[in-house]
Amino acid sequence: MFLLGVLLFIIIIAIMIILGGGMAHLKSFYDLPSVLFVLFSYLSILIATKSFGDFVYGIKALSMDDKDLSKNKLKNAIDLFDMLFKSSFAIGLLGFVIGMINMFARLDEPDAIGPSTAIALLTLFTAMIIAIVFIYPIKYTLVKKIRSMKFKK
User: Fold this and answer.
1) Rounded distance, CA 72 to CA 54, Å?
2) Average pLDDT in the 62-74 region?
3) How far, in Å, CA of 117 to CA of 94, rounded?
4) What is the pLDDT of residues 89-130, one digit of tens each?
């Protein structure tokens, strides 16, 4: 069900983009540097907090049976995904500010203003999509797992 929900949300976003500008407009919502900035920002958080193991455990826990789960490890994974979700807006905003600084540095090139602004916004868009489509649903699924463990006799 998790993957079905993620797929459905991605389809809804794609339909909204296509309705707003046609099929050719869809590629305007993808920018490799923005995606890399956001993904490497998440990776740097995992490294800085020494939480890569919690991240991997959280992903594995999605498909594990309740009897195989460790409450402490699951709580750590939930805390990590909560922190990643909360930091998503800051990551996107930081990318947006960097993009806007790049745009302002190129004000003497009118043809660069539109694309520079788009790249700045795409970083924010990418961070929000990753947070809403992946991070929060993973966190919520893990919370549901730990709640089901608490009430078992």
Assistant:
1) 10
2) 88
3) 14
4) 999 999 999 989 988 988 888 888 888 888 889 999 999 999
Q: Which of 148, 150, 7 is nearest to 64 (CA)?
A: 148
Give the whole-angstrom CA distance, residue 138 versus residue 116: 32
Q: Which of 92, 96, 94, 91 is nearest to 120 (CA)?
A: 96
In this predicted structure, the answer to whether residue 74 has a pLDDT above a threshold of 90 is: yes
CA quadruple 127, 129, 134, 135: dihedral sign: positive
Give the phi and the psi of residue 127 in degrees, each rounded to 5.
-65, -40
Q: Where are the domains of the chain?
A: 1-30, 31-150
d(CA 4, CA 91): 27
CA torsion through residues 38, 41, 3, 80, sign: negative
Using CA atoms, how far apart are residues 149 and 153, in angstroms rounded to an integer?
Answer: 9
Neighbours of 48 (CB within 10 A): 8
SS3 state at 22: coil
69: left (phi over 0), alpha (psi -120 to 50) or beta: beta
